[in-house]
# Entry
Amino acid sequence: MSKKLFIETLGCAMNSRDSEHMIAQLSEKEGYEITDDMPSADLILINTCSVREKPVAKLFSELGVFNKKKKTSAKIGVCGCTASHLGEEIIKRAPYVSFVLGARNVSKITEIIHKEKAVEVDINYDESEFAFDDFRTSPYKAFINISIGCDKACTYCIVPKTRGDEISIPDELIIREAKRAVDNGAKEVFLLGQNVNNYGRRFSGNHEKVNFSKLLRRLSKIDKLQRIRFTSPHPFHMDDEFISEFAKNPKICKSMHMPLQSGSSKVLKDMKRGYSKEWFLERIAKLRSECPKVSISTDIIVAFPGESDEDFEDTIDVMKKVRFDQIFSFKYSSRPETEAEHFTNTVDEDVASYRLTTLQNLHTDILDEKNATHLGKVYRVYFEDLNKDHFVSGRSDNNLVVKVKGSDELLGEFRDVKITQIGRTILTGELVG
Ligand code: 5AD
Ligand code: SF4
# Structure
């Protein structure tokens, strides 16, 4: 009987891809099979996120539950960003944990499972050219890492301390991986990195200087590849060449994530984001003038230390001007080993809650108005998921989630869909082609 692996993945798409890499290595080299049933697993992995405080606190209560319900012989490993930043403290607080594996040490998974109480959290470890075995959760869309780590120094962010310096993965490896995924049936690739449009600044070996626009051009030459998505670009690196490539390359999906963080130039300076409110708005204007149909999503942090009512009004002002298609919004959460951890001018919790609610309510109104315009329109949808009640869902080029009545025959297919019903996060339609 094969050994069973249960893996829980928290956090961002980078973490999802790291989990796929761990599954690939463990199934190819160690004979593990994935299970959804934690109590029957021989190996339990939690791939953690440390970007905000709450999930970290939850980790220890969850570990306690896993420890109670698991098979006596089963091992528990803590991986990912919280593993990087807490290291051996995890084993001190939860002594039944067998090993701790940091976010930048994924390739060591097959060794560490055999080393009781090992802690591998080196953030300078370079696995940018490691040849991982192949495992993909979805056969339709292939996540591909194009860089590891992050070179920025945003004062609120723990990620440079958990994922280390930024190193780009050589373009020939990325293209080879994309070709392999396409040969296995994927029609879409989703490129991943902390700052994808900073691609090519540093490779670990000697490599041709390929920037992100060039990488996109090279990838789009893969014949059967039909769609390219990526996350996250950084507003600071949104140069004209990148915007023009994005707008003109027909294989690039017209959906852009532009993490604003704050609409106040003063707060942006305190966050060390490297751009101002005016600069952000100008880049959005440029993007929309070259690509009018683009949908734009963003990340916003409210109540960063020192954020005044006027600063928050600037964020509201940018929201009203840009009318983002999607927002991910958070209350500021103080993180260890960051510069802002030492800022003393913190914002009261009730003010923070009020600002978050105000921002989210405003966005809901914007979204309702925007969604109403989709009724009766026809979008080309790439179907990826089988839902309950005989619905199949997928995304339009500009990232609308659309479902239609249908069966698994639609999975992996592109179809034209006329929108017949509007929901906040998902639109319903019928096939017209
Ligand atoms: N507090 C709140 N939100 C944060 N993010 C990153 N660090 C923090 C923090 N300390 C948010 C940012 C980022 C997203 C992934 O998480 O908006 O873009
Ligand atoms: Fe992803 Fe950041 Fe969370 Fe790490 S801390 S998993 S990089 S969101």
Notes: The chain has 13 helices and 19 strands.
